[in-house]
Amino acid sequence: MTHRRRQGRALQIASIAGIGALALAGCSGGGSGGGGDEPLQVLIGTSGDAETNAVQAAVDAWTEESGVAVEVVVASDLGQELAQGFAGDIPPDLFYMSWDQFQTYAADDYLEPYAAGLDNAGDFYPALADTFSYDGELVCDPKDFSTLGLVINTDLWAAAGLTDADIPTDWDSLATVAQTLTTGDTVGLSMGAEYARVGVFMEQAGGGLMDGDEVTADSPENVEALTYLQGLLSAGSLAWPADLGAGWGGEAFGNQQAAMVIEGPWIAGALENDFPDVSYQIAELPAGPGGQGTYTFSNCWGIPEGADTADDAASLVEFLTSDEQQLAFADAFGVIPSTETAAATYAETYPENAAFVAGADYAVSPVAFPGASEVVGEFNTVVPTLATADPQAILTTLQGQLEDAYSEVE
């Protein structure tokens, strides 16, 4: 892709992200881009001070070893600021690249394909390596990951007369315990009314939105998944957070409006901060007719294509994704390491999160080809109506929209 076309595409991305042309023209933030005496600029999104401080400490340690100065920049809106940097031809030297934007940036030649050449290229979970591969090549190192699990309020569980032997392992037992736990102002199960949650049931049914290069949104397996969830909604044992007056599943769980929720390891920090008295445990998601299924969510360490600072940036990435450093990040702010060896150590150190790690063995990434996010956004507006809608009609519409979007990629 030519420089002019790449800038044009970056302007489109920036426009989608909500940045106007005048803001782009006034852009002043970005990487050094040309090396020299300028420090490497690393752009990150952050979950809070713990993550920011841990990344800063890690790059400081690398600087001490390498002699290369690094500036860590915390984005207020990572997607917007990254798009702005590329549109102005001044991207940062290293940055968080999200799973849902990776394919778009890789397809438009914005990313340096450095990862396959590093010594740790074969150390990552296969699902993570697939997420950050383009045209069969690993492009950028996954920095950590999260999966979805079943979060159970242990006090409500015991009060309902349930034991560890009742932890659901399939859809039937999930429906049973969700109904048992539904009482008074508490619903048995809640989760976000969105593809990133209901989609795991499609995977558990043996479906999914894509099978290789084929769009499969309207498959019988996906209809079965939505029909199953519709049954839980109709029975009153599943409710969306918004219907409980909560902003997300973690809030519904913390307020004990839901006895179980489907969430990732990020819920631990939220509960510790806002609902410290709520006791809980994590289980793997129950299997469906097609087996076990969950999603994996991650960022990789992105480097701009052709950057003069790429070698130094790649060296820093190799340091940041080492087992030792990833475990230090896990200690500091709770993320799960992206390498299989470090994740195994993490599961031993934090047995309460072992179910999230176990899910990585069968997890897949949500659909993420260029243009898919817009279609998924439309689907997310329909999911809250599932209780009374026709699952087949929902998926037929989704099939057509995804096919149209995918035809632009081919």
Kindly describe this structure.
The chain is α/β, with parallel strands linked by helices. The chain folds into two domains: 3-146 and 297-354, Periplasmic binding protein-like II (D-Maltodextrin-Binding Protein, domain 2), CATH 3.40.190.10; 149-293 and 369-407, Periplasmic binding protein-like II (D-Maltodextrin-Binding Protein, domain 2), CATH 3.40.190.10. The chain is built from 18 helices and 15 strands. The chain has helices at residues 3-16, 21-25, 49-66, 78-87, 99-107, 126-131, 154-159, 171-181, 195-204, 220-235, 249-254, 267-274, 310-320, 323-333, 340-349, 354-358, 372-382, 391-407, and strands spanning 40-44, 70-74, 94-98, 133-134, 137-138, 146-147, 149-153, 187-190, 210-211, 214-215, 238-239, 258-263, 280-283, 296-297, 299-302. The strands form five sheets. A five-stranded mixed beta sheet has the order 11-8-12-7-13. β4 and β5 (137-138) form a beta hairpin. The longest helix has 18 residues, at 49-66. The radius of gyration is 22 Å and the shape is globular. The two termini are 16 Å apart.
